[in-house]
Every structure is written in C-alpha cells, then in structure tokens.
Amino acid sequence: MKTWLPRLLVSALMASTAMASAAVAAPPTGAWVFDETPDMPGFTRIIVSEQNGQYSGTVTSHWYGDLPLKDIYIDGDKLSFHLFNGNMRVPEYPITLTKDGDRIRMKGQVWDAIFDLPAHSGSDSEVKALDFPTFPLPAPRTVKAMVPGATPPMGWSSWNKFATDIDDKTVRQIADSLVSSGLRDAGYVYVNIDDGWQGQRDQDGVLQPNAKFPDMKALADYVHSRGLKLGIYTSPGPKSCAGYEGSYGHVEQDAKTYADWGIDYLKYDLCSGEAFYHTPETVRAVYQQMGEAIVAAGRPIMYSLCEYGRFDVGSWGRDVGGSLWRTTGDIEDKYATMATIGFDKNGVPNHTGPGGWNDPDMLEVGNGGMSFDEYKTHMSLWSLMAAPLMLGNDVRTMTPETLSLLTNREVLAIDQDKAGAQGLPAKKDGTTEIWTKKLADGSTAVGVFNRGEADANVAVTWSELGLKPAKIRDVWNHADLKADKGYALVVPKHGVVLLKVVPAKS
Length: 506
Ligand code: GAL
Fold this sequence. Notes:
Layout: H1 7-25, E1 30-34, E2 43-51, E3 54-61, E4 65-68, E5 70-75, E6 78-82, E7 95-100, E8 103-110, E9 113-121, H2 124-128, E10 154-157, H3 159-162, H4 168-180, H5 183-186, E11 190-192, E12 198-201, E13 207-209, H6 216-225, E14 229-234, H7 251-261, E15 265-269, H8 280-297, E16 302-306, E17 324-326, H9 335-345, E18 357-359, H10 372-384, E19 389-391, H11 400-407, H12 409-415, E20 424-429, E21 432-438, E22 444-450, E23 456-461, E24 469-474, E25 479-481, E26 486-491, E27 496-503
Parallel strand pairs: 10-11, 10-19, 11-14, 14-15, 15-16, 16-17, 17-18
Antiparallel strand pairs: 1-2, 1-9, 2-3, 3-4, 5-6, 6-7, 7-8, 8-9, 12-13, 20-21, 21-22, 22-27, 23-26, 24-25, 24-27
The protein binds beta-D-galactopyranose.
C-alpha cells in the first residue's frame, strides 16, 4: 500500500531532517567555561563563533591570555585548531572541540600539558568575569641603565643547581660560602634568587614572597652585610616560567617593591608573556617598561634581560636600560648544550662591551655533568666572550678542583678585561677552533679548542693569526712559554689551551 503525504508536508519533513542532520553535524559555537584545567596553561573559557560558514574564536588561559584559534578545520561536529603560545620551539599540537551532551570537550596538548577538558555553556556574566585584562605598553623611549656595568657582572644564581627548591636559609649559606671560599673576593658579588621565591599579592597588589622567604628585606640586609648584592627574578607575563606570579599589570609596583627590599639586580624573563608579546615592538616595549620602572623606583638595580636572544636584543638591550641580555635558550649541564651555546649561538660582537653584555647563560661549572676539561672549555669560552659569570653550582660543597676553575685570576682577568671585546673564532679546522680576543693592554687572549672526541694536535701559527708574540703565557697553568713562531699543541678531547700573547714592540 502506498502511503500518501501531501507534497508540502514531504518537503517540510525533508527540510527539517536536513536541518536536524546539519545541526548534529555542526561543531559547537558560543561561549564555554571550563570545569577543570591543568595549572599550565590554566584554561578559563573558549569562545567560538561562526559567520557564513567561517569559524573563529579564542581560548583564554591564565598563562597566555586570549589566544586565537589557528588553522581551524571542520570535520562534521568536530572543530580542530592549533594554538601558538609565542614559542617557536614548542610544537603546535592539534586540539579538538566536540559536543558532549549539553557540554563540550576540548582535547589536545599545549607545551607538555595534555588535556581532555569538559566545559559548560557560560552565562554572559560568567564569561565576562573571565575577560583577560590588557594593559597599555609605553611608546618607544631610551632608558638610561641604573647600573651599566663597566665589566661583565659576576655572581651566583640559584637556578642551575636548585631550580625552584630554593629558600632563605640556603641563600644565606651560599652568601657565607661565597665569602669564606674567596669567591666574593675573586669578583662574584651578586647573589641572585631566580624563579620560585614568589608568593601571592596582598589586597593592595603588592607581591609577597612565599613561605620559603619569610622576610626579603632582612635577607637583603644579611647579604649586604656580607659585602654582597642581592638579585631577584620576575616576568613581564602573568606567570613566571615555573608558574609563579609574574609582574603582568604590576610592573611599576613590583620594581618599587624590589627597591624597598634593597634588591640590586633584576632578571626579567619573558616566560608566559611570550604568547602575547611576540613581535619586535611589543617585546622591546615590555622590557623598556620595566627599565623605566626601575629608574622610577630610584634604586641602582642592574637589569638583566632574558628573552632568549629574540629580535636581535643586543641591538636595543642598552636602550631599554639593560646591562646584559641573554642571547640563547637555557644552558644545561651537558657538554653538547654548553658547546652549542658557547661556540655556535652566542651573540654578535658589536653589541657586547662596557655597559652591555651578551649573556650566553649561567655557568654549570661544578654541577657534575661535564668533565674537568669540558668545564675548563666552559670557563675559557665564557671569558673570551666577555660573558657575565654567574655561578650555577652549590658553592657550599664544591671541590677544590671546582674552586680552582672558578677562581683562576688570569682567566677571570680575560673575562673582566676593560676593553670588553667579545672574543671570536679566528680559525676553524674540522673540530678544532682558535678564538682570539683583543685585550686592553694590547695583548691578545687565544683559546685553542678541541671539540672532537679524541685528543688532537693543533698547529698554531702566530703569523696566521696576525700575531707577533714577544711573550706567551699559558693562562690556566700560570706558566710562560717560549715565544716561538708557533706550536703544535696537544689539546685534550673537548678541552682547551688558553694563552695570552703579548706582542713584540714594532
Ligand atoms: C627560563 C630561564 C632560566 C630560568 C627559568 C626559571 O626561562 O631561561 O634561566 O630563569 O626560566 O623558570
């Protein structure tokens, strides 16, 4: 039997079926509030809209603010996208959004956070309350450094050895050991607390240290009483790299707090701010903002820029009040990383010099991951580059061998040379490199490096390097060498021979 339906009814039914299937197949739109989130990046909401079949939207998080949904791809009711958090080294993993009853789920990965998160449809007020605040950045201006630094700064920093496992007591003990070991008198005067000291803001927005640092002012007084200076760390973004409170929206207030505590050095680490400060203009502007805030706070605080060498920082670091600027990503206590940073990546010569220093990152000497020769290479290379020398080891328990590597006066004199020239490779031959650095007294420091996996014979011919030696000093061994036309030097695997060549009077 044939069923008969009026024509109009059939087409109406067909249309509604099509609509129903279209509705089922469409990905979620609207404003959704996350019911849970990993701390990093601390997702709060996602807003998706559709116009003429084109989807767009943003995901908001505590770390990164509003990130636009990138590379949106629709497959049935699934919306896939990428997020760019400002860090080129981190892959953009696929993230998907699907309906789940009257909720949605967002599944994927950002950096090392893997998630599968439910979100509910947010009311207008709920969504509005999650607006991420934005703050204006200053117009370009030149800032005069409070402490330019005639020679590269020297000191100690908590990060390489202790990471966030650092507290008041350890910092005091480190200060004591810097004094008793002679490191302070060798020039290592800054005691820098890196990430992990921050607590919460009080009702007036003033940042408090966490429970591990009961009284920062008292700690500064103690460090000063030992003839040392105290450094601290913060970030322009909402979160520091280890997830602590950053200076976002509190830049001037934080600089003032540090000045009140008696802080002498500030490392400003881009961290989560890289998500929304990722153009040359905005990155320069945020660093200028803190530079100006330090000046306004009125205390001589040395300003260390840490934005991993982005946007040719050496060419503008001084102009925002910086006295040193990182030129690379993080060092590790491994020969391969140290060598890549030191030999291959550190900045260009025309930026470093009195008042502003390329910073290839803190020292790993004494942390145990490299051989004696490798640490000798680390110290020699950093000294030839006129790099800041920030100890990264536990100076309370170091061996005499480590201490000798850190306090060789002739090596330190090359680092601290008044001319402030950055040494550069003069000759590369397979896995050997000869670096030279002109010193203020007219002599030349020469580093003969062996990056190979076996001891090497390296021929050094002075004329080839444009040198006419009258006197040659083996710097590590405090020995004078015969001023021959050249040498065949035996350089150990991953090792170095560091020389000072005094020219013949012409
Ligand atoms: C990194 C920085 C390190 C250290 C760390 C702290 O971004 O390069 O030197 O400060 O953050 O979380």
